Fold each of these.
Amino acid sequence: MKTKFITLVSNEFKTPLSGILTSVMLAGKYQLTEQQDKREKHFNTIRNKVHYLDNILNDFLSIERLESGKVNYKFTEFSLSKLINEVVYNANVTLKSGQEINYPQNIENIMLRQDEKILELVLSNLLSNAIKYSPENSQINFDTTLEDKMIRFEITDQGIGIPEKDQKHIFERYFRAENALLNQGTGIGLNIAKVHLENLGGSIGFTSTENVGTTFTVELPIIKE
């Protein structure tokens, strides 16, 4: 497992770091004012790669804390709109050409008492997957529903879907579906999300059809003591 982990880290960091280095070198060649659009293209690539590396580091740190039992959840009161705006703002950096995220706008007065950072990590992971496994010019729906003392988040994409034979393994650590192996990924994000949500009194599930799309559903208490 240790060897597999080291190999995984090496591969996942090498590709984006190479992309960042190449973009820095190419951006430096465009020094004229009228070449700003070409510079901006490479700056966007750099932002995208850095965002990806940041997500990987957060996942690895979560694994270490979960396995060592050092996770200390911090429950605070925060607005739902603040949380969703932050998640969507960060996800917008990684959108492919023509992709669009539809998310709720009229939720300013809804307050939650949960671990805001952990919930942001979980939702960001799910939204990142929706973007990564969906084609250009596609819609991603990010919905919220309040039911009694629970809140439900649903993230639906029009992506490659999860093959039926792989669905029972999707929350296993390091597992990656057969049709996702050519995409960058560690296979640990969904496992981390499941463990965190269960620790917070919540749950995660999904429905998926290959070559049609996937919907991930997260449910957890609005108020966690």
Amino acid sequence: MLAGGCFWGIQAVVSSTSKALPDAACRLCRRCAERCAQYDTVSSGRTSHAEAVRVTFNPREISYGKILQIYFAVAHDPTQLNRQGPDTGPQYRSEIFPQSDAQAKVAKDYIAQLDAAKAFKRPIVTKTQTMKAPFYAAEAYHQDYAINHPNQPYIAFNDAPKVENLEKMFPDVWRDQPVTVAEAAKTN
């Protein structure tokens, strides 16, 4: 599960990555009940929710490390604290939600490697300590939003460039036809 700004952009990138499937745009939380996971409540920034995308993948086909490379290189700016582009608030934070101790170690080691190499001009602020946070699916209209609304100004300006960068930087995993959440659910 990956958070990095509005989940529309993360989902658009995952949908265009071969061997990785967008499971759902969602909200993750450490302390709140499901009733707190509604859009209006989360948008206030007063909950502990993060807009995130649950990613399904087969590690024999694409590694968790490769997914993290894509996440840090094109899906968001991991140096922005509690914001991404025009979106501000803790719900837009950069956070990886590892599903195992092994994933947590890979994520922490990769962040340390990127920081040591000074891959970014500022330090990485991505959190990794939350394991298996409760998952609450976002409202249906959020699912596949970037795919369904490619000409919407927010998508064209903020999210389409991420998908274009995926194609340029990771042609080995680029998928020309994005997979929707509904299509991904059929293959799981």
